[in-house]
Amino acid sequence: MNVPNSRKPAWEEWQLTAFVLGELDETTETQLQRAIESDRSLAAEVKAIRQTIAQVSAVYRNESKATVPIQGLGTGGLQAILQRADTDSSGMRPNYLAPLIPASDASAIKAEQPGRPIMKWLGLLAMSACLLIAVWLSVPSLSSWMLDHAESLVAFDTSESMNVEPASATIVTDGKKSEAQVATDNAALSRELSMLQTEVAANSVGRAASSPQTSAADSPLPDYEPAEMPDLLFEEPQFEQVLSTPQNLLGDEVAGQNSEGYAVASNEMGGRGGVGMGMGGMMGGMSMGMEGGMSMEGGGEMGGGEMGGDGISGGMMGGYGMGAGQVESAPALAVASTMGMTGGGTNHDPYSRGLEHERHWDDGLRRRQYAESSNNRFDSIVDNKFERVSDAPLSTFSIDVDTASYAKSRQLLMENNQLPPAGAVRIEEFINYFDYEYAGPGNNDPFAAHLAVASCPWRPEHKLVRIALQAPKVDLSKRPAANIVFLLDVSGSMDEANKLPLVKESLRMLIEQLGENDRIAMVVYAGAAGCVLESTRGDKQKEIMGALERLSAGGSTNGGDGIQLAYNIARDHYIPGGINRVILCTDGDFNVGVTSTQALVDLVVENAKSRTFLTVLGYGNGNTNDAMMEQISNQGNGVYAFVDSWREAKRQMVQQLAGNLLTVAKDVKIQVEFNPQQIQAYRLLGYENRIMAAEDFNNDQKDAGEIGAGHRVTALYEVVPLGTQSDAGRPPIDELRYQSRDSLSPTPTLNQLSNASETAAGETAAEFNAELLAVKLRYKQPEGDKSELLVFPLKDSEATFNEADRDFRWAASMAQFGMLLRNSPHAGNSSWSSLIEQAAVAAREAGDPHREEGVQMMRRAAQLRRGR
Amino acid sequence: MGNSTNNGKSPKCDVPPREWIAQVFAQLEVPLVGYASRHLRGDFEAARDVVQEAFVKLCQQSWPEIEPQVTAWLYRTCRNRAIDLNRREGCMSMTTRSTDVSQLQDQHDPPPQQRAEMDEQLDQVRVQLDQLPDRQQELLRLRLHENLSYKQIAEVTGLTATNVGYLLHQAIATLRAKSVVKR
Q: CB contact, 8 Å: B153 with chain A?
């Protein structure tokens, strides 16, 4: 469906509508224009559509003429807004208001501040507003924007009998009758009239005559690909692609280097003073936008104090912006090659990581990849690359305990006999799927850290460093009360044996474990969202099971509405100190509602802030919007697991229940500082979409992963010991002639970045020098807002790979498996046969059937790869 | 976006300049109040509160990133807030139909001299419009009344741009089928 269908003989009606509305891309538009010229029935069709649209527009215009002019907030409202913005922002911009209002008067406003229009200021402000409008209107691009849009409003033939007043087609500004306004109205009017005249002759709604700006505004729309239109099953690669541009601090570079059209277009858009809107701009705004909207809700629900205090506006904003482009603080700002490593953040977006532009992840490839394996949608992932310690001594990432990528790959390999696409393979999830025998913390810490080092199996001259965190196992009988809202996808696509029936089975397993202190509710969504089980006490099993039995599949999906409803119910029955969680069970087919990933993410983030977390359980094969599910669960302090079988349901709902439900620490971040005396370069395996900027480590506003009871997280670094002859991490630019090497040493950076009182002080430099690296952990208590710091140094053990413990070897094998599946350029001398041999040993020693199965998967993958 | 002068600073230090806020406010204040009121059963008072909240939030957005997308951002923020307010009533209220806009209009009948012949035809269209699904009504309004592009509408409503195009087409097709378009 992603192949642009340029030779399609017949035109779809929706294309005609888009054509009339000026929403087709240029190529399609030209083609359609030509077709209309030669095809009379097509021309008639277009004309009819145009007339209908004109009539509707006329209805709207009449409406605004007929009703009492809408009163805006007035200029007093504007003052109240600016004033409130000033107070709400906790002194972030002290001089915000100063130039507009004399100081003494500003205090007077403060007294009245939360109120709406402040009449006292009306005169003065009306004046300034008029001035501003005049200035604004004198900007040519803006006025022409207005006119361009006026055109589309009067987009109908003058031959029509309707008598439309052109003036009403201008933007409604009844609230302000300034002279400047009137003047422009007149200008607009005369332009419209001439437009209307040309309209008679021109078939093209005057679009042909409109400036290139108009096409710039419209062209970023995705090509309409008619094939699957009625299913409303559309991928949105363009969203993710451009997510980074507006916020990325290196946005311009990205735009230039990607030059994918969207980004470029949005640049032009920017020139319009914020009125026009490119795809890039929009998606960038998405995160911020929803942020704003949602945080208002938070404020409303929880008292205004939360609004600023939660760091929603400033901090979270940074969360996205910085996540996308945080490289600037890493020591090697200018070195483009470091970006692949340090960019990206929580954005889950290879494009914001960006600048790996030499790589092959162009849009076409992404699309092709999307198209693979029956509608499964996976984000592409670009492997982390080697970083030189001298350039970037700190490596920071957020933990991720998800396992869906492994289960999904297992399904593709073992059931579909298909190699998973590279984008579906997230190495960290391959590693973290498995149980490891790490000891839990002995004290009150929420987790224990286990560091180990051994030689790297696929590149023996390198070393492999394991960082493992183990959260304490919690006695389930002592768990806090749970307030669970199931959000169940009952759309038509769920009507398969491995979907809804498996969902029901999973729920039954979980419900059986609930008691009288727990509450459970069920929300279903398909064409519409509805609550099928109001929040009910956990011991009313009959009632709950009854509701569960009655579920059946049908309709199309509107995940967006459903998720809001589910969150609302969770909020209504919030248990302080308890487990408050929405569990979304879906095949990921959000095809009607809030389909934009970012909109969903923002919703989820907002609710995570009020401590209602999200678990996403993916079901079925095909149709799984993996990228979206991964992203919304990551941002929702949640878990994303893929349930492909009864066994996996049991694993998630019974064995891992505590971990999935009971968060022991949230916003867990890992920062590794490498010692340049020992290590020259390093590479983090996996966690590509969890990389954070170094300075985000200490920023409590930055969201990160959570860890549940009994969960464990393993991360592997491949490190290049100092003095190794290796091209890994070879500098992409020559040594700087005028930079002193000393200034790049990591120690001062560490001191700058972390609170001096928290670093282990008093140890001698010599002691530090013997260390390979130090792992710093930051986490918050589940209900806390302030992070705590743990530091663990690691010394080299000179162990060979075979001397490492079996968990180490298994984790390394899974990383290797992932790299081979992904065709990673970093796989070294890995081969399927050596991998399988090494993994089989580690699996046998552990006696874990899951690991045995992992080895089976490797065998199958090796076969499939050979067969190609 | 064309400028990158703010690079290298933490984004939260850069808030939109008040002059720009004032411009945007002047331009969008009234349309936004009108738009929000439709989600609030015509309660203009509440709509103005919603719009005020949105602009307060806008002042806290990161500049200049917010600039190119401000229109959709404001519409969306107002929409979300309005829908939330509307939804307070209860669990299922979100699936209830939004207010019939025509009821509001009928309280303010236009002056008789304006009701020419063509109004009859438009009245018919209006009746047909009111019978469309709420979502389609909203999309038509956003496109034709508020002048937002498909993409902007997508941002506001959370649909995809393609979806918007499809639904708009459906709406227009329905209207066409129902009303005899006079040549």
A: no
Contact A245, A251 (CB under 8 A): yes
Half-sphere exposure of residue A842, counting CA atoms within 13 Å on the CB side? Answer: 29
**Top-confidence residue, A521 or B124:** A521
Per DSSP, A743 falls in state G
**Whether this model's pTM surpasses 0.90:** no
Contact A661, A653 (CB under 8 A): no
Which residues of chain A have a CB within 8 Å of the CB of B181? 48, 51-52, 55
Strands A579-586 and A613-619 turn out to be parallel
Residues 6+ apart with CB under 8 A from B182: A161, B121
CB contact under 8 Å between B182 and A64, yes or no, is no
Looking at the predicted complex, does its ipTM rise above 0.85? Answer: no
The 10s digit of each residue's pLDDT in B21-67 is 888 888 888 888 888 888 887 788 888 888 988 888 888 888 777 88
Q: Which residues of chain A have pLDDT under 50?
A: 1-8, 90-190, 192-374, 591-593, 742-763
Nearest CB among A57, A153, A234 relative to B162 is that of A234
Nearest Cα to Cα of residue A702 among A399, A293, A302: A399
Question: A712: which 2 tokens?
Answer: 């464990």
Question: Which tens digit of pLDDT belongs to each residue from A786-795?
Answer: 888 888 889 8
Residue A111's Cβ-count burial label (10 Å; 0-12, 13-18, 19+) is: exposed
Strand partners, A716: A466, A685
| Preceding peptide of B64 cis, ω within 30° | yes
Q: Which residues pair with A672 in a beta bridge?
A: A395, A775
Q: What is the pLDDT of residue A727?
A: 62
Distance separating the N- and C-terminal Cα atoms of chain B: 46
**For residues A683 and A706, what is the distance between their CA atoms, to the nearest angstrom?**
23
| Cα separation, B39 vs B47, whole angstroms | 8
Which one, of A603, A535, A545, lies nearest residue A573 by Cα? A535
Residue with tokens 């059937």: A849
Surface of A (161-220) touching B: CB under 8 A: 161-163, 171-176, 217-218, 220
- Taking the CA of residue B167 and the nearest CA in chain A, the distance in Å comes to 9
Q: What is the mean pLDDT of residues B68-95?
A: 70
Q: Answer yes or no: is pLDDT of B82 > 80.
A: yes
Neighbours of A454 (CB within 10 A): 22
For residue B43, list chain A residues with Cβ-Cβ distance below 8 A. Answer: none
Helix or strand holding residue A455 (H, E): strand A448-456
8 A C-beta contact, residue A321 and residue B62: yes
Q: Which two tokens stand for residue A105?
A: 């008067």
The string over A838-850, giving b where at least 16 C-beta atoms fall within 10 Å of a residue's C-beta and e elsewhere, is: bbbbbbeebebee
Q: What percent of chain B has pLDDT over 70?
A: 72
Cβ(A489)–Cβ(A585) below 8 Å? yes
- pLDDT of A148: 45
Query: How much is the pLDDT for A529?
Result: 67
Q: Do A292 and B57 touch (CB under 8 A)?
A: yes
Name the closest residue on chain B to residue A99, using Cα atoms: B18
Cβ contacts of A569 on chain B, cutoff 8 Å: 91
Signed CA dihedral, A749, A754, A755, A758: sign only: negative
Strands A519-525 and A529-537: antiparallel
Q: Which of A94, A603, A292, A299 is nearest to B61 (CA)?
A: A292
Task: Return the pLDDT at A590.
Answer: 58
**Residue A560: HSE in the Cβ half-sphere, 13 Å Cα cutoff:** 17
Nearest Cα neighbor of A216 from A260, A273, A278 is A278
Q: Tally the C-alpha atoms within 13 A of residue A154's C-alpha that lie toward its C-beta.
A: 31
